[in-house]
Specification:
This protein has 15 helices and 16 strands. The protein has about 500 residues and is α/β, with parallel strands linked by helices. The chain has 3 domains: about 1-40 and about 455-485; about 45-170, Nucleotidyltransferase, domain 5 (2-Layer Sandwich); about 170-455, Nucleotidyltransferase, domain 5 (2-Layer Sandwich). The protein has a 6-stranded mixed sheet with strand order 8-9-7-6-13-14. Helix 9 crosses helix 13 (about 390-410) and helix 10 crosses helix 13. The radius of gyration is 33 Å and the shape is elongated. The protein starts with a helix and ends in an 11-residue tail after the last helix. About 40% of the residues are buried. It binds inosine-5'-diphosphate and calcium ion (CA). Inosine-5'-diphosphate binds near residues 205, 243, 245 and 394. Calcium ion binds near residues 57, 203 and 349. Pfam families: GDA1_CD39. It is a multi-pass membrane protein. It comes from Electrophorus electricus (Electric eel).
């Protein structure tokens, strides 16, 4: 009997030791599996693909390089800006007198692009050049010069090892729509039930407004997209000549015209420039654009004299918007159909540069107006001392540009004090600049599918780890069951724990 009891005690001790050992092994195995699962699923060295878009704007050209993980082309939000380079000097449209030099002006930035993209990816990297309102205006004024400029930049880009996809003037509608795609792609708004942002783009020679709307009364202002399984019905309009540089020319030309015939124009007093500002300008620099009429004058130059009076400036700027005629239910200005604005808007490019400089990106419309009034009243000497490092051309124009932006948004697009805070002034979203270029590339490379790709239940890494753990657990349980229930005892009985 004692022997039997001793045997049982021994057996029990053995079983306990075994259970402890098994448990230790299970825990160790568990840790091992998780470690292997994690290490195995650690992102491998990512393989990136690249694309290049040149934004040939009216004031200057920028070269953008985008990159995305090679195996995730069609996932939303995967493409990011890797590098941007501002071409020195003015925009390509300024080469109208010497078109053959337009191409070579891009050299420095294109050489940078060669450095930034791994050599083995060069030949498969698409490169696009899109020209905007500066070239649209040149085409209107001098078609052959615009063609020569495009030929020059096209030929130059083809000397690089990238996959050249063309150099063209994009339409105002494309500029608006692709800006809208960029902002919403980067904000991850596609493929979700979430609403989209409208897009407001202000350049030197044109401005664009784009937002989702239910009803568009004019066919010229409609664009439809199906992206990631959702239909988007867009309103878009691009106002040629309503970029801030051209509006300045229009406003100066109006003042000159109103003085013309009265006296010789020696000094042109301007409420939109600071008191003490006094610069000699050529008439040619104002009247050299299809946006302003012709003027026959014997004089070549005039003095541009600042007054620094915001209310008068506001009155002058308002005159560039023709608000009386509208054959639709609602208009923005110049008889252009526009549904009432609604929802959030991202305002970028010069909207951002100017509002950021003036510290007007937050706060109410009233506050923005009163702050701008104070800023415009500062003498030019004070302004120069306050901002010694800011480019003088920009500095001189911020009072005018700020006034134009507030007037365009309020009187032009019909934003009010109530929805003013729905406008967000943005430069970048994540690493990427807001602008039309990213949307343009996504569209041309078919990187935004019409239908959302089917998503697996779990991400790959999670799936592998889960399956490993599950199989290990099942295996351990089987082992445990075998050991505990099937092992014959010394007395021929089955040992039950
Ligand atoms: O730092 C800045 N401060 C103020 N304005 C800027 C700054 N950087 C760029 N801009 C302005 O932004 C505008 C950009 O226009 P862009 O060259 O894209 O013309 P486009 O889109 O009409 O063809 C120009 O008026 C340029 O002077
Ligand atoms: Ca632009």
């Amino acid at each position: 009997m004692d022997e039997q009891r001793e045997m049982k005690v021994k057996n029990r001790t053995m079983v306990r030791t075994m259970i402890i050992t098994i448990t230790v092994f299970i825990v160790l195995g568990f840790i091992l599996m998780v470690t292997i699962g994690v290490v195995q699923n650690k992102p491998l060295q990512q393989k990136y693909k690249y694309g290049i878009v040149l934004d040939a704007g009216s004031s200057h050209t920028s070269v953008y390089i985008y990159e995305w993980p090679a195996e995730k082309e069609n996932n939303t939000g995967m493409v990011q800006q890797k590098h941007a380079c501002n071409v020195k000097g003015k925009g390509i449209s300024s080469y109208s007198d010497k078109p053959t030099l337009a191409g070579a002006s891009l050299k420095e930035c294109m050489d940078e692009a060669c450095e930034a993209i791994p050599v083995h990816r060069h030949s498969e990297t698409p490169i696009y050049l899109g020209a905007t309102a500066g070239m649209r205006l040149l085409k209107l004024g001098n078609k052959s010069a615009s063609e020569e400029v495009l030929k020059s930049v096209g030929q130059f880009l083809q000397t690089y090892p990238f996959s050249y996809q063309g150099a063209r003037i994009i339409t105002g509608q494309e500029e608006g729509a692709f800006g809208w795609i960029t902002v919403n792609y980067l904000s991850n708004n596609f493929g979700k039930a979430s609403t989209t942002f409208g897009a407001l783009d202000l350049g030197g020679a044109s401005t664009q407004i784009t937002f989702v709307t239910a009803k568009v009364e004019s066919q010229d202002n409609t664009i439809d997209f199906r992206l990631y399984g959702n239909d988007y019905h867009l309103y878009t309009h691009s106002f040629l000549c309503y970029g801030k540089d051209q509006v300045l020319k229009m406003s100066l030309s109006k003042s000159i015209n109103s003085k013309h015939g009265q006296t010789d124009i020696i000094a042109l007093e301007d409420p939109c420039f600071h008191e003490g500002y006094n610069v000699t300008m050529t008439f040619q620099s104002v009247f050299n654009s299809p946006c302003v009429g012709r003027l026959n004058l014997t004089q070549n130059t005039f003095t541009h004299v600042g007054l620094g009076k915001w209310s008068e400036c506001h009155t002058v700027v308002r005159k560039v918007f023709q608000k009386s005629e509208c054959k639709y239910s609602t208009c923005s200005f110049n008889g252009v159909f526009q549904p009432p604005v609604h929802g959030n808007f991202g305002a970028f490019s010069a909207f951002y540069f100017v509002m950021d400089f003036l510290n007007l990106t937050a706060g109410s419309l009233d506050k923005a107006q009163s702050k701008l009034q104070e800023y415009c009243a500062l003498p030019w000497n004070t302004i120069k001392k306050m901002y010694p490092h800011v480019k003088e051309k920009y500095l001189a124009e911020y009072c005018f540009s700020g006034t134009y932006i507030l007037t365009l948004l309020e009187d032009g697009y019909n934003f009010t004090s109530d929805n003013w805070n729905y406008i967000r002034f943005i430069k970048k979203i994540g690493e990427s600049d807001a602008g039309w270029t990213l949307g343009y590339m996504l569209n041309l490379t078919n990187m935004i599918p019409a239908e959302a790709p089917d998503k697996p239940l779990l991400p790959y890494g999670g799936y592998v780890t889960f399956m490993l753990l599950l199989s290990f657990l099942i295996l351990s349980l089987c082992l445990l069951a075998y050991k505990c229930f099937c092992r014959p005892t010394g007395s021929g009985q089955r040992d039950v724990i």
